[in-house]
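Form 7-S
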Amino acid sequence: MSEEVKAVHREPHPFIGIHQIHNFVGKPVAFVGKVDRFEDNNMIMKTAEDKEVKIIKFRGDQNKMHNVIEVRGIVNKDDTISYGEFTQYDNEFDLTTYESMLEYYHGMCRDLCIRS
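Output:
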């Protein structure tokens, strides 16, 4: 198991959206998005607004990755996320509402619950 994956298991990983990625460089995070495609050992995910986030060093089973998933990993300087592990969400998950909640969480409620 790589050091990055061990860090994902050991440390808390706040849920972030595309607008918060740059604030968490070098830290473990949880990112939720739609699986779009795979390129070599990278997975491209999309937000509710169809913006892309690249998950690098992907080592999972591509056949198990569909619809909306949560990826836990480490944010890189180029705003990619190094893959650690994932959780599959069901087809009823509302990504648009979830992303709106994240904007509120990281905005107005920032001082109450998150330290980046």
